[in-house]
Amino acid sequence: MGIGMDRIKLLAGLSAGLILIATGATWAITRDINTTIVILTLASTLATVMMAVTIYELDIALKELNFEAVSEVYEMMDENLKKNISKIKRWHAEDLQAGRISGGVLVGPARDDFLKDEEKVKAVSDASRVLNRVGYFIYRDFVGDWFIQEQYAGLILESFLAMRPYLKALRDSRECEGNEECENGPWFLRRFYLLLVVISYQYLCKNFNKNCEKVFEKYKESVGKPVPSKWLADDVKS
Hints:
By secondary structure, this protein is mainly alpha-helical. It is built from ten helices and two strands.
């Protein structure tokens, strides 16, 4: 998008220069107002056509980029991701029933047990990495919010409710190393995944309230913002 705007600005500057030079030269040579007006009109028409063609080409390029990004998202949201999410949902149900999860976080020795479990750490890392990449596509406007919301809002919201205790433990261990201020502060790791969760929650719970309630009930939680504001980095808040 930035490159496209730079190109338009450059063309606009060149067009203005062309018009100025053409009219100035005509006036200097002919000293005839009518001839100068004709040349000015021709130069302005040419500049307008050049701008229109450039904007049309950019529109086509942006549509092609959007199509490629949408195709990439479909490829990322594949069966491997869904299998990992299913495993994490099963682990969450087991840990919740056993009292190893409380208030959406792992409690007691459950946190250390999880961090020592290579299979679980890999599943959470892989699934959240893919979803973070999808979130980056949203952040950079490669894909519109509406596409993710309409296609995957339920899956994304539920994936986060299931993954949150494990992802929080993983993020804290990698980013904070016991620093309490860091643990309660904005995330760097997976911050685009958090953005994805926020827009999915907003869409699902505003437009499909009953479905939203069922998702939260499944994880023994009241409906509410799944991502605390303090976890959101400034670049994804805006």
